[in-house]
Design goal:
The chain has 146 residues and is mostly helical. The protein has one domain: Orthogonal Bundle (Hypothetical protein af1432). Helices cover 65% and strands 0% of the residues. The two termini are 23 Å apart. The model has no long low-confidence stretch (mean pLDDT 92).
Length: 146
């Protein structure tokens, strides 16, 4: 995968997330930008840019596959939580795909950063604890090198 693919994924994410805001009211695109920015390989960066598009926008896995290939689509699929899916089931599926696992780790790191929020609630603290448990689980993968 080339840096051109990363730029294409970035453009797709910018288009798909246009007008969306995060919990702090900031443009949502900052989140995928931070997630992708932590990742080292172009393959992971593409998935980092796209990781919330299938779950939160009208973009389909078929469109992702047509542009970026089967492996990228499989990683985006693995990192996209399905409606009604149990959290533990979702994390097991993420952990089975090495690229999805690395991307989800970056996603959880970003989502756990409470300093972005003006007012921190107990709900935010509980979500952070849940994400920290997920990080521990995903970081126990044999393909996650530190």
């Amino acid at each position: 995968m080339l840096s051109q693919d990363v730029e294409t994924a970035k453009a797709w994410a910018e288009k798909q997330h246009q007008g969306q805001v995060d919990k702090s009211g900031a443009p949502y695109i900052g989140h995928p930008a931070r997630v992708a920015g932590r990742l080292e390989t172009p393959e992971a960066q593409v998935v980092g840019w796209l990781h919330d598009t299938v779950e939160d926008t009208s973009l389909t896995l078929e469109e992702v596959e047509a542009q970026f290939g089967t492996e990228t689509a499989a990683a985006v699929d693995a990192v996209s939580r399905r409606p009604g899916e149990e959290w533990e089931t979702y994390l097991r599926r993420v952990k089975e795909n090495p690229t999805a696992c690395i991307v989800k780790i970056s996603d959880l790191i970003d989502n756990s950063n409470l300093s972005r929020l003006e007012h921190i609630t107990m709900k935010d603290v509980m979500r952070q604890a849940k994400y920290n448990q997920a990080l521990q689980y995903l970081m126990s993968s044999s393909f996650v090198a530190f």
